[in-house]
Amino acid sequence: MLNRKTTIPISRPVPFDFPDDIHRHWNRADREISAMANGASLTMPFLEPFLIKTIRDCAELVDSPLLKEEIKGFCLQEAHHFKAHRRFNDLLKKNGYPELEALEQDMKQAYIKLSQKPLQKRMAYTAGFEAMTMGITKWIIGDRVKLFAGADSRVASFMIWHMVEETEHKCVAFDAYKAVYGHSLSSYWHRMLGVFHGSLHVMLLSRQGYHIMLKKDGLWGNLKSRWRLWRRVCWFAFATGPYLIRAALPGHNPRREKDLQWVLDWMEGWETWDKDQAPLVDTHHPNIPVPFY
Length: 293
Ligand SMILES: [Fe+2]
Ligand SMILES: [Fe+2]
Description:
Blueprint: H1 31-59, H2 65-94, H3 100-115, H4 119-142, H5 144-148, H6 153-168, H7 172-181, H8 185-216, H9 223-248, H10 261-272
Helix pairs in contact: 1-2, 1-3, 1-4, 1-8, 2-7, 4-6, 4-7, 4-8, 4-9
Bound molecules: fe (ii) ion (FE2) (2 copies).
């Protein structure tokens, strides 16, 4: 669902402040899940500015005023996301993982290098990564009870907030790519490669992050923990894989991906909410319901 009067994504405040007491194992019962999500968070302050820069470059070639407005909304949301993730990541470094700093420098360099690639390749990466976010939403929000039961509700709400907005702007990068590069076979080929480039690159960088964190926690060499991690990685792959496969097919259109009702209800709840920040989700509720009601 989009802003009812327009199709322009709207940017909402982060649903919580970032106090120092956020623990790096915000899901105490599941350190592997905490590490996987923390690893993904680590990439955001480098990935999302890259997405913004790329789609802004692309916007210069777009004619449609509506699509240009949608791109502006996309950029506002992504800028909001990466700033929030940077604050969260700073807490992770402060609260146990100072060694992530070196990996952040590597990530910075990786995106500087990627920024020098031709625009079509960067846009295909952007649209490709955005396709994966629909699968991540299915995982994070569809499987929220398994992921967040008993976890720190602030972190759960933060991750859910991000994925709600990813749902909202899921078509923007795809539309911008299509508007500029059209429907030719060559355009499809580049876009299809971008699905795997964008998603696998971010997964690889995230893995480097959780590797460092689990090593620091003394869990990387622990067979039981590695088995738990492997099962969670497979769980993630099964949730996101179908979205990537569909995105890589000719004729793909993200509009055909059905949004989760929970996400739609969250957006509707926000529209009638009169406070600055959204309420936190209740991670102790057996169903973790939409928090506005
Ligand atoms: Fe985002
Ligand atoms: Fe996005």
